[in-house]
Design a protein that fits this description.
The chain has twelve helices and seven strands. By secondary structure, it is an alpha/beta fold. It has one domain: Thiamin diphosphate (ThDP)-binding fold, Pyr/PP domains (Rossmann fold), CATH 3.40.50. Strand 6, helix 9 and strand 7 form a beta-alpha-beta unit. Bound molecules: thiamine diphosphate (TPP) and magnesium ion (MG).
């Protein structure tokens, strides 16, 4: 898989649920359900005209965020894409401030100016949300460079992006600089097979994305992104590796989005049968089925976690509804004009 023998460690993942404490497993179910219920409600609210603009749902891909984010430390940094609601939530941005942002209210994490694609929260070191494909990668490299220059050792910058980013020059420049300058970036590629309507295999001659990263000298791993424990194990190993020596790692997660690319997408590029096949691998039900089979979770446990998630969503909607609009007089606040 990679020329670097240090990466062999990253490939040794086991997913036996019994190796983990019950509380740990239930916490991962909770993480995934919070994202799922939040986004299902967002889709409804979009239909009702409460949320406007763009909305890209992560439904189907929750195991990646749930497997990675709990392994990061508060001083680490996180950079994501426009499909970032799940990462923001599990990084610790409150559901209230996310929902208020979706509504465009002043109480939102970006003061209502960013919307779905631009969730941002300096307090949790969640540095966006970015509408530009590949746009987060140089930001991550810059954050890691800043850490290195300031001798803040042991920090990791985790950068999530879709496989569509590999078609951008900035992907190659970012990986090259991270390796060349020996920067502590964890590149997390969420390969859901499509970039809008373009299948990876129709646009790239090399669809093993770890090979692209390995060509720049990064350690790499492939991971089943539909399995939250496999993601957890890979992410933990990768984070330990970056934290340990300050050098970058690239992980490719194989995942799938169950919903359309955004709210405007006729999905002419894939068949319903394909979507149904991938739904069989759904990260929530496959994990809960295994937990139940192992006697680690009951229907009642699941119902309780689900009730809690739904209540949190209800409260977030109430918070957003009660939120305020930014006064017109503040329209130019934070707008900078370079002096002539
Ligand atoms: C630089 C740039 N080019 C094109 C677009 C239009 N665009 C928006 S999303 C997208 C597909 C990206 O796919 P991927 O990176 O795989 O992420 P996914 O949507 O699958 O999560 C494109 C081409 C953009 N936002 N930015
Ligand atoms: Mg994609």
């Amino acid at each position: 898989m990679t020329a670097d023998p240090r990466a062999a460690e990253l490939l040794r993942f086991t997913t036996d649920v019994k190796r983990y404490p019950r509380e740990f497993c239930l916490a991962r179910v909770r993480d995934m359900l919070r994202i799922r219920r939040l986004e299902e409600r967002c889709a409804e609210l979009y239909g009702a005209g409460k949320i406007r603009g763009f909305l890209h749902l992560y439904i189907g891909e929750e195991a990646v965020a749930a497997g990675v984010l709990p392994n990061l430390a508060p001083e680490d940094a996180v950079v994501a894409t426009y499909r970032e609601h799940g990462q923001a939530l599990l990084r610790g941005v409150s559901m209230n401030s996310i929902m208020a942002e979706m509504y465009g209210k002043r109480e939102g994490c970006s003061r209502g100016r960013g919307g779905s694609m631009h969730l941002f929260d300096a307090a949790t070191r969640f540095f966006g949300g970015n509408a530009i494909v590949g746009g987060g990668l140089p930001l991550a490299v810059g954050l890691a460079l800043a850490d290195k220059l300031a001798h803040r050792t042991g920090r990791v910058t985790a950068c999530f992006f879709g496989e569509g980013a590999v078609a951008e020059g900035v992907f190659h420049e970012s990986l090259n600089l991270a390796a060349l300058w020996r920067l502590p970036v964890l590149f997390l590629c969420e390969n859901n097979l499509y970039a809008m309507g373009t299948a990876l295999a129709r646009s790239e001659s090399q669809i093993d994305l770890t090979k692209k990263a390995a060509s720049y000298g990064l350690r790499t791993a492939h991971v089943n992104g539909m399995n939250v424990l496999a993601v957890h194990e890979a992410a933990k190993a990768a984070i330990d590796a970056v934290r340990g020596d300050g050098l970058p790692v690239f992980v490719e997660f194989h995942t799938y989005r169950f919903r359309a690319h955004s709210m405007f997408d006729a999905e002419l590029y894939r068949g319903k049968d394909e979507v149904e096949r991938f739904k069989q691998l759904g990260p929530i039900h496959t994990f809960t089925d295994r937990l139940k089979a192992a006697g680690m979770m009951t229907e009642g446990d699941f119902a309780a976690i689900d009730r809690e998630a739904l209540a949190e969503v209800d409260a977030a909607v109430a918070f957003a509804e009660a939120g305020t609009w930014e006064p017109v007089g503040e329209l130019t606040r934070d707008v900078y004009t370079p002096s002539a």
